[in-house]
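Duplicate of #3305? Posting structure anyway:
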């Protein structure tokens, strides 16, 4: 009887490992990254007294990108770099009120681009696994993972412990289905960027959907 139970346990462990030697959760993250990363861009803006850097999500195959308003605010020249290294000039289409901190920008690609799917932030639950892809400190295409730590309904923010750093602003907070549930906005920063203490905030994607609906009516 004991030998039979041990065999079942052994088989259950084996079944959790893929043919390539990855655990099931690893395969989820690997496949998700390979599927989503082509729709994530790096954004660099020239400002009067410096530079702005952030991340964006391609939401239209013709080059419409959603990002954070503060990433492109007061910039006079915006460059977007896609995951394949191509660089485009971008223009701002619209920005939401500052407290929402969302913006749409546009590039003019010569080919159709891969897009990312928008989820439903009303379905977000505290404790669910989430991932981010961004451009922290210039390291483009960086994947991090964590959970939804808290939902601030009063301020309309999703809190997460997934690592978000300078340069990740405007990038996606993604569920394990590869859908964007939030746009990364800020980190709790009591020590002026000396460390990431695991408190980041994202704007619920349904706010972005409302902005998109208004922009489409123009």
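Output from current build:
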């Amino acid at each position: 009887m004991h030998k039979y139970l041990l065999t079942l346990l052994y088989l259950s462990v084996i079944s959790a490992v893929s043919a390539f030697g990855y655990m099931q959760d690893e395969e989820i993250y690997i496949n998700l990254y390979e599927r989503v990363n082509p729709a994530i861009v790096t954004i660099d803006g020239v400002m009067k007294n410096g530079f702005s850097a952030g991340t964006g999500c391609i939401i239209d195959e013709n080059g419409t990108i959603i990002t954070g308003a503060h990433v492109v605010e007061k910039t006079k020249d915006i460059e977007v770099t896609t995951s394949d290294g191509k660089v485009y000039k971008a223009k701002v289409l619209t920005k939401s009120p500052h407290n929402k901190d969302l913006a749409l920008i546009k590039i003019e690609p010569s080919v159709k681009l891969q897009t990312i799917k928008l989820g439903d932030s009303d379905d977000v639950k505290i404790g669910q696994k989430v991932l981010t892809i961004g451009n922290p400190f210039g390291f483009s295409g960086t994947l991090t993972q964590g959970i939804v730590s808290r939902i601030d309904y009063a301020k309309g923010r999703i809190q997460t412990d997934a690592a978000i750093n300078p340069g990740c602003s405007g990038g996606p907070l993604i569920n394990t289905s590869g859908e964007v549930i939030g746009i990364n906005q800020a980190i709790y920063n009591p020590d002026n960027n000396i460390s990431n203490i695991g408190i980041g905030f994202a704007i619920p994607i349904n706010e972005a959907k409302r902005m998109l609906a208004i922009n489409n009516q123009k």
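Confirmed duplicate; merging threads. The helical segments are 2-15, 24-36, 69-72, 205-217. Residues 8-15 have pLDDT under 50 and may be disordered.
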